[in-house]
Design a protein that fits this description.
Number of helices: 1
Order of helices and strands: HEEEEEEEEEEE
Radius of gyration: 16 Å
Largest sheet: 6 strands, antiparallel
Number of strands: 11
Helix content: under 10%
Shape: globular
Length: 151
């Protein structure tokens, strides 16, 4: 017997909520969550990370217009590589990964968020790869990301 649609939809929403790391923001005026394009949350003794296959979104819902900065680390598994970061369709920064780079701290990037929904998009120039240890297509990872309000 097939499950009712509403039950499957509820289970997907529940699974998505579980894959959102805690502490994505320090602001009570901002709700941050991972959107489309990210693999499941991974955690270890040093925090958490999420991989994308090359394109991913982070959704930022601001109760009012505000300024914020990104903190945490990022990495491209394919190197060299450039990762374009856009906020609401406007370029914010292009991250560069060189041979030998591992996780790197975020550069000083200020985000001017408008009231309501804001979308932060990540796009890798290079295609994702699959390794013998991980069958998922991997390109870019974000580690211990926090969006900190500055205004």
């Amino acid at each position: 017997m097939e499950e009712p649609r509403h039950r499957r939809r509820t289970e997907r929403k529940h699974a998505d909520a579980l894959s959102q790391p805690e502490g994505l923001t320090d602001s009570s005026r901002l709700h941050v969550r991972f959107g489309a394009g990210w693999h499941a949350l991974e955690a270890d003794g040093q925090g958490w990370l999420r991989w994308s296959a090359g394109k991913g979104e982070i959704l930022l819902d601001a109760g009012t217009a505000l300024d914020a900065v990104l903190e945490g680390e990022w990495m491209s598994i394919v190197r060299p590589n450039k990762v374009r970061v856009e906020l609401n369709g406007e370029a914010v920064v292009t991250l560069e990964a060189k041979e030998g780079d591992g996780f790197q701290p975020w550069p000083e990037v200020r985000l001017r968020l408008r009231e309501g929904r804001n979308t932060l998009r990540f796009a890798s120039q290079r295609k994702a790869i699959k390794s013998t240890r991980d069958p998922r297509p991997l390109a870019v990872a974000l580690k211990n990301l926090t969006v900190r309000e500055t205004s």
